[in-house]
């Protein structure tokens, strides 16, 4: 039986799910609504529509529709790079000498290099359908911007990406991928926007920040006719689109009669993890099955494990709506020596609620141990993983080694969200032994949490 | 019928071929033997063994065994990243508005980013089986070195890579991938070898060359107990290992009853093209079927289309054996402004003989048109191709557009050998409009061909 499971389980094309699964419909305790910071009231569809596409606002606010159809045009694009393989990590199991059975869902086999494309194509589609000319967004290292530029090229939409200036200059490769896909990439802060001009007047030598790039992208969206702003994580709509990951995973496991004991994913804004675990959480919520679900976050940006569950701004610029989430405070900035991504101070409101209700657990891991796991994985499984994804690898290996000690034959599934081909500067630090672990002090976290906005909605 | 062909044809794991196909066995006119430059005589197994692994020498010289078993250990490794998909380019067909049916065999979904891994794992296996400690090689941009480092990590072999110094310094990313896989990467010329020390004494500021790196790698192999030298293209053994590409392609096509009219591949040293077309050439040689087979080379390094069929050194350093091949002369160096890879002055002796005998044709294409094809392909098919692979894309698009004019519904298959994630500097030149086409003059080529060695063996 065991040997009949191939190294890579590929679904057939007609087994790609036809609907996304909205886990909110099965949640008794719904995620708290987004709040308008101006009046402390939940944001309505009409308040969101000047910023986001109408259909995406609807998805953002929809806590009730359990299954949402994937439009044909998106489904067709999914066939370009999906189904993604569910890989049995025979080589890793062998290297660890563990009785555990390890599987990973690999989302890196597309040019954006990650799962981000799953939501980018959906957001671009709804923008096109609404008759928009284009979309704006921000990007740090460029993973999301790359995915969005691919999606916009496909639908012939204008794509304007505000890229943090230091990344634009020091990490030119993803910038060039975006340009190859026809995106307009602007180093932020720029002279295109009021906020950019204001910041440049005050700090002419600034190398930019993600918070500033978000502000520019939002301003650019609302100030141009026919444009909207799009975002690659955190939001409910993004998590919804990412459920394609979990649904494919579940279909592949079911096909071979495999029931996982542990499901592991890395958590930054939470959308890939939420997408992977939604169908399994759904079974837990409905009392049909039980799974151990582990969110893995960097010890240098530990929203779940050391943050607080409260309303906070989604951005450091404090112009975005307030979300109730596990947060370190919107003014929390992870150390510059943190290389492994997942730098967001907060967490998806859906996952925050689920974590608060005890449906999943969380672990924080240090970056040198993450890169050690990445290297071990790369050498035996033949895939150089993204630093973000490697957080999940670290905990998967830890759990497999526990099984080695206890003799338990647990089945472990983790999400391998992407490849590390554009993260070689961090690998170089690790290879040279110059990478260090930086963990915020309790005082650091207390100081940024002290700045949380005073909101008591609902 | 047509619609039943999926976007991606994946073979089942047990459909991965169990044997490589040695096209030489079906050739009436065998490729000319390698010649020892010292005495003008064909090289024997015993002369080759101090440099190459014994089993690989045997494969190099074997013109008769038609099917060669793939050892179980290699087969197991192949399952890590194979079978590779045969993709129906529906999106590209649609964008071109052509009645042609286009398929491509995509070899880029592994961390080495190309087909090179197919031979690297075989060569590492035979070295391990022979009880060697390690292997040495040279690398330019690093694609072959990356593949070899992955293969050596898997078998626990020491891997010493001499990397052209300017690439080592200016293209650090592939270097770091190799280091992550445990390879020792040395900038060449180095103080490790006599030849390196000599060159550095004479030219302390040299940035190195592939010819020099080859010389260092060969010296390092023969001067260390338990080491051999390995090479990533040109040789018969490499082409043999790469037939896994063509065999999988043929199995996938046969499964759906598809008979290609045109088969296209890019040609540098010739191993990927040879691997792709071998099973089809075999049918032509045996009179079972006919196909139009097109080798695509850069106009800046046009071995087939403007070279001569003669014995020549395989390396610019003139220390390697002589091979009878289409060559521009071992002293021919493509312009530094040529970005698209495929820089080798000669060509596989097998392909050279087949081309000479009229079994395939060749076309030379200019690099700006290659990058234009790459960009068009990337935008609709979602894969950013390697510049090398994009030579094949260029001609596939040209042929599909011819079909649009004539209305012919030809079936076109091409080899997409790899991804361009480490070639973004060239894409940047293209995006900025600073890329130019440089074509050697007749006088340039005549001058380097005038330096061919005087050999008239056989």
Helix-residue proportion of chain A: 40-55%
Query: Oligomerization state of this entry?
Result: homodimer
β-strand percent of chain A reads 15-25%
Biggest sheet overview of chain A: 7 strands, mixed
Total number of helices of chain A: 18
Kindly provide the radius of gyration of chain A, computed on alpha-carbon positions and rounded to a whole number of angstroms.
21 Å
Q: How many strand segments of chain A?
A: 15
Most residues in contact: chain pair: A-B, 42 and 41 residues
Mean pLDDT of chain A: 94
Structure description:
The structure is a homodimer of 458-residue chains. Chain A has 458 residues and is of the alpha/beta class. Chain A contains 18 helices and 15 strands. Chain A has a 7-stranded mixed β-sheet, sandwiched between helices. A 4-stranded parallel β-sheet of chain A has the order 8-7-6-9, with helices on both faces. In chain A, helix 12 links the parallel strand 10 (262-266) and strand 11. The radius of gyration of chain A is 21 Å and the shape is globular. The N and C termini of chain A lie far apart (53 Å). The model of chain A has no long low-confidence stretch (mean pLDDT 94). The A-B interface holds A 6-8, 10, 12-13, 79-81, 91, 109-111, 113, 117, 150, 153-154, 172-173, 176-177, 179-182, 375, 378-384, 419, 421-422, 424, 427-428, 430-431 and B 6-8, 10, 12-13, 79-81, 91, 109-111, 113, 150, 153-154, 172-173, 176-177, 179-182, 375, 378-384, 419, 421-422, 424, 427-428, 430-431.
């Amino acid at each position: 039986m065991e040997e009949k499971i191939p190294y890579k389980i590929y679904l057939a094309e007609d087994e790609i799910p036809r609907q996304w699964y909205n886990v909110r419909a099965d949640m008794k305790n719904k995620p708290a609504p987004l709040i308008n910071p101006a009046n402390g009231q939940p944001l309505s569809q009409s308040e969101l529509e000047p910023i986001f596409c109408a259909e995406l606002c609807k998805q953002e606010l929809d806590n009730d529709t359990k299954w949402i159809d994937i439009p044909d045009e998106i489904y067709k694009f999914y066939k370009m790079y999906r189904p993604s393989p569910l890989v049995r990590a025979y080589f890793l199991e062998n290297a660890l000498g563990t009785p555990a059975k390890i599987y990973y869902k690999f989302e890196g086999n597309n040019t954006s290099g990650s799962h981000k494309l799953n939501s980018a194509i959906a957001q671009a589609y709804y923008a096109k359908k609404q008759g928009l000319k284009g979309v704006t967004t921000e990007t740090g290292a460029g993973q999301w911007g790359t995915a969005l530029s691919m999606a916009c090229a496909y639908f012939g939409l204008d794509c304007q990406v505000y890229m943090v200036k230091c990344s634009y200059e020091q990490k030119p490769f993803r910038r060039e991928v975006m340009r190859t896909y026809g995106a307009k990439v602007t180093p932020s802060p720029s002279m295109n926007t009021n906020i950019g001009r204001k910041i440049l007047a005050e700090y002419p030598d600034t190398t930019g920040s993600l918070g500033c790039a978000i502000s520019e992208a939002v301003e650019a969206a609302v100030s141009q006719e026919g444009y909207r702003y799009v975002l690659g994580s955190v939001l409910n709509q993004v998590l919804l689109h990412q459920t394609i990951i979990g649904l494919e995973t579940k279909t592949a496991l079911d096909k071979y009669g495999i029931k996982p004991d542990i499901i592991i994913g890395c958590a930054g804004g939470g959308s890939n993890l939420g997408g992977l675990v939604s169908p399994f959480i759904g079974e837990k919520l409905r009392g049909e099955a039980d799974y151990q679900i582990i969110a893995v976050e960097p010890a240098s940006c530990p929203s779940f494990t050391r943050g607080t569950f409260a309303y906070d701004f989604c951005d450091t610029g404090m112009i975005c709506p307030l979300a109730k989430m596990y947060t370190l405070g919107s003014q929390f900035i992870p150390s510059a020596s943190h290389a492994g991504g997942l730098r967001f101070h907060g967490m998806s409101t859906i996952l925050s609620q689920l974590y608060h209700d005890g449906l999943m657990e969380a672990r924080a891991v240090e970056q040198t141990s993450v890169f050690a796991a990445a290297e071990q994985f790369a050498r035996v499984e033949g895939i150089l993983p993204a630093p973000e994804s490697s957080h999940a690898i670290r905990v998967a290996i830890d759990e497999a080694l526990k099984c080695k000690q206890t003799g338990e034959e647990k089945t472990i599934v983790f999400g391998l969200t992407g490849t590390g081909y554009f993260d070689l500067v961090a690998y170089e630090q690790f290879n040279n032994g110059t990478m260090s672990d930086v963990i915020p002090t309790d005082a650091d976290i207390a100081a940024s949490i002290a700045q949380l906005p005073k909101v008591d909605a609902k």
